[in-house]
Amino acid sequence: MLPRGALTRATMPASVNAPPLPPSASPVPSALSARSLRVARAAVAPHAKGPAPGHHGASGSRWPLVVGAIGVVFGDIGTSPLYALKECFSPESAHHVAATSVNVLGVLSLVFWSLLVVIVVKYLTFIMRADNDGAGGILALLALVPPRRDKSRPGFLILLALFGTALLYGDGVITPAISVLSAIEGLEVATSAAKPIVLPLTIAIILALFVVQRWGTAGIGKVFGPVTLLWFAVIAVLGGRQIIANPHVLFAIDPRHAIEFFAVNGSIGFLVLGSVFLVVTGGEALYADMGHFGRGPIRLAWYLVVFPALLLCYFGQGAKLLSDPSAAANPFYALVPSWARYPVVGLATAATVVASQALISGAFSLTHQAVQLGFFPRVTVVHTSKTTEGQIYIPEINTALMLACMGCVLLFKSSSALAAAYGIAVTGTMGITTIIFYYVVTHRWGWSRLRAGALAGLFLVFDLAFFFANAAKFVDGGWFPITVGLLLFAIMTTWKRGRRELSDKFRSTMLPLEAFLEDLELSKPLRVRGTAIFMASSAVGTPPALLHHFKHSQSLHDQLVLLTVENVAVPEVSAGERVTMVEKGHGVVHVTLRYGFMELPDVPRALAATELHLDPARTSYYLGRETLLTDGPSKMARWRKWLFAFISRNARPATSYFALPANRVVELGQQIDL
Fold first, then answer.
1. How are the residues of the chain apportioned to helix, strand and coil, as percentages rounded to the nearest 5?
2. Are 245 and 376 in a shared domain?
C-alpha cells in the first residue's frame, strides 16, 4: 500500500484533455479532439521543421523484412498486371480502346508516369516521410496535424480522414476478390472446360486466405514473400522477352504519347484512365502497412524488385499488343508460352493470395488506430509478432472482410465486372490523404503554403483525374465500395457522437471529487482491507461506480484508486511517461495511464510497476455497465441512437480490453436514456 504523503503531483508533459467518458468506457478518445502528449521525440515535435524520422517498426536484419514486404505490402500492386491493361483494351471492358499503336503507347505512357508520380514521388518520397513514429495510414497522418488554439483539430479534416478510412475498407473487400478471380480466370485461357470451376475455386482460395490470417503478417510474409519474389521474377522475364522483340515500345516513356492518346480518343480516353488507375491501387495500402515492415525495407523492395519488374511486364504486354492486337482479350496471359500456362496460373494464384494481404493487414492497422482514437468500438486485437509491434490480427474484422469478399465474388462473377467497382474508393482516399498531408507539411513541418500547395497540387492533378475517371463506373459497380464505405463511416461517426453524448450526461451529473472527499472527512465510513480500483473518466469527478458501491456497501477499501486511461496522438508512449499519480487524501489516489494508438492497454501490468504495491489477492476492479435506452432528449437521430446502443452491446467488454483479471472485476449497472 502506498504510504500517505508519498505521492506528489508528477511533472508530466501536457496530456490530452478529451471529454470524459463513462466509467466503463474504453480509453478517453483524446487524440483528435485536443492537444497531443508532447513527448521528447522529434517524431512528434509539434513544430518540427522537417519530417519525423520514425522507426522501422522492427528489429533484426533488414533483408527478411524486405522479402516480407515484397510478399505483403506489394502483393496488391504487384498483381495489377493481371488485369490493368486488359481493362484498357479488352472488348469485355466497359470503357476500352482499340489496340492501335497510338493507343498502346499512350496507355503505357500513362502507366509509366502514374507509377512514377503516384507511387515513387507521392508515397515513397513524401507521404511515407510523414510517419507517426513509424506508423502509417490516414489516421496516423491526421494525428500529425497540430491542434488549433481551442485544442481541437479542424472538424472537416477529421470527417475527411474518417471517410477515407471507411473507403479503404471497401477497397479491402474488392482487392482479394478481383486479384484471385483474375488469376483463376487464366484457366479459361488454357481451356474453356475450366469455366464452371472458376467461381467455386475462387471462393475456396479466399476462404483459405482469411483462415490463415491468425498466423500474422510475419508468418505469411515468410511463406509468401519468396513466392511473390518468384512472381516478380517471372513477370519481368515474360515482359522482357517481348520488349527485346519489339523495343519500339520503350518510346512510350515520352509523355507526349499520353497527350496524343487523349487528343485522339477524347472522352473515351479519359474514361480509360479509370482502368489505368488499376496499376497504382496498392499505394494507399503501402502507406497503411508501413508499421508492419518499416519505411526502409519497403523502399528497398520497391526500387530493387517491384518497380523494375512492373515496368518490364507492362511494357512487355504493350509490345505484344503492338505485334498482335488480338492479345487484347488477355494481354498478360498472351505473354505466357502455352507450355507454361498452367504453372503461371498456379503462381499467379499464389501471388494474388498474397496481394490481398496488403489491404487485409492494412485494415487491421486502421481498425486498431480507430479504436484507440475513439472512432471505433473495442475489438479483439492479437499481436502476432514478438519483435514487430505493428503486426496484429483482429478476428472480428477478418470475419467481416471474408464474408463481404465472398459475397462480392458471387455478386460480380468476373474480374471485368469487379474492375468496374474497383478504384473509386481508393482514388477518394488518395485525394483525402493529399489534403491532410498539405496540413501536415504546412502546420508541422513549417513549409510555406506556396511550396506545399505546389506539391499537393501536383498530387491532386493525378488524384482528381483518377477519381472522376472512376466516378463514371459508379452505376457499373462503383456503388459497392462506396456503400461499404458509407456504412463504416456511419458506424464510426455514430460511435464518436454517442460516446460524446454519454460523456456529457456523466459530466452534468457527476459529483465533484472534492465534495466526495469532504463527505468522507465528515462521515468517516468503515474501511476494509485491500484496494479498490474504479475506472474514472477524469480527475475532477467522482466515478458513479464508486458512489453506487459506497451507497450499497456503506464501506470503502483502505486504498481507493481512481484510474483514468488516456489515448494520445502518438503510436507509443515511453515507460517514463506512462503513469501519473496524484494523492487526493483519505486513501484516494488518482492514477492516469497513457497509451499510444498502436498500443494495447494492460492495466494490471502498468499498475504493478507503480509505487502502489498492490496485493493482487486484495485488489478489486469496479466498472460501470450501462444499459442504453433510446427515448431520451439527446439530439442524436433515432437511428443513430439505435445503432450506438447495438454497437455498445456487442463491443468487446472493458474487462478483456484493459486486460483486467475477470475474477477480480465487479460491474455495477445503471440505465441511461440517450
1. 65, 10, 25
2. yes
User: Model pTM?
Assistant: 0.73
Report the C-alpha gap between 608 and 124 in whole angstroms.
Answer: 42
Contact 117, 458 (CB under 8 A): yes
Written as one letter, the residue type at 212 is: V
Interatomic CA distance for residues 368 and 376, integer angstroms: 8
b/e map of 520-548 (b: 16 or more CB within 10 Å)?
beeeeeeeeeebbbbbbbbeebbbbbbeb
pLDDT: is 538 or 236 the higher one? 236
- Residue pair 172/404 in contact by the 8 Å Cβ criterion: no
DSSP line for 218-262: HHHHHHHHHHHHHHHHHHHHHHHHHHHH-GGGGGGGSTHHHHHHH
pLDDT tens-digit map of 99-132: 999 999 999 999 999 999 999 999 999 999 988 7
Give yes or no for a contact between 398 and 360, defined as CB atoms under 8 angstroms apart.
yes
The CATH code of the domain that includes 189 is 1.20.1740
In the sheet that 526-535 helps form, which strands lie side by side, from edge to edge? 579-585, 588-596, 555-568, 526-535, 619-629, 665-673
**Same domain, yes or no, for 543 and 664?**
yes
Mean pLDDT across the chain: 81
Residues 200 and 174 in one domain: yes
Q: Provide the grid cell at 225.
A: 514473400
Instruction: Note whether 521 and 391 are same-domain residues.
Output: no
Do 89 and 233 belong to one domain? yes
CA distance 442 to 120: 22
Contact between residue 630 and residue 599 where contact means Cβ atoms under 8 Å apart? no
Q: How far is residue 201's CA from residue 436's CA, in Å, rounded to a whole number? A: 41
- Would you say the C-alpha torsion 607, 611, 616, 621 has a positive or negative sign? negative
How far, in Å, CA of 657 to CA of 650, rounded? 13
In a domain, 352, yes or no: yes
> Grid coordinates 519525423 are at which residue?
52
**C-alpha neighbours within 13 Å on the C-beta side of residue 99:** 21
**Each residue's pLDDT tens digit, 305-339:** 999 999 999 999 999 999 999 999 889 999 999 88
CA pair distance 100, 116, nearest whole angstrom: 24
User: How large is the average pLDDT for residues 57-73?
Assistant: 68
Q: Across residues 603-613, what is the average pLDDT?
A: 88
pLDDT tens-place string over residues 610-627: 888 888 889 999 988 777
pLDDT tens, 439-463?
A: 999 999 999 999 999 999 999 999 9
